[in-house]
Amino acid sequence: DLIVHVRDVTHPETVLQKATVLSVLKNLNLPSHLLDSVVEVHNKVDLIERYKPTEENALAVSALHGHGLEELKQEIEKKILTATGKKILTVTVNLEGPQLSWLYKEATVQEVEVMPEDGTARVKVIIGSSAFGRYKNLFPN
């Protein structure tokens, strides 16, 4: 669904390495949308003072220090959701009904926050459009 290209920007041949990787990817006859959505990651930016990517849409990270990793995670999540046609939603379910079980079977449950005072839970899920449509039909409330 997604290609993440991580480069060591401190390497003296980093530009040549990028060209080589892109050439190999193109020779694999991958779908154009996959090649067009590559996430470019510049790693080891902690070793270059005041590093700023010169390439549009490149993400600067330091895996060693954790710099930029949250932005990278968000970018990957956004592109994966777009590529797969899924979305992240939070729904409130009645714990006495079958909704939670259905969500575990038909979606990816990320978090469940139980509200014991009213017998409900807030459930954060990754779900496709068609599955969400079925959910709304089965559980209109």
UniProtKB/TrEMBL annotation:
Q: Which InterPro entries match?
A: G_HFLX_dom, GTPase_HflX, HflX_C, P-loop_NTPase
Q: Which GO terms describe its molecular function?
A: GTP binding; ribosome binding
One Pfam short name:
HflX_C
Entry's Gene Ontology cellular component terms: cytoplasm
**Boundaries of every Hflx-type G domain copy:** 1-84
Q: What is this protein called?
A: GTPB6 protein
Instruction: Please tell me the species this chain comes from.
Output: Sakesphorus luctuosus
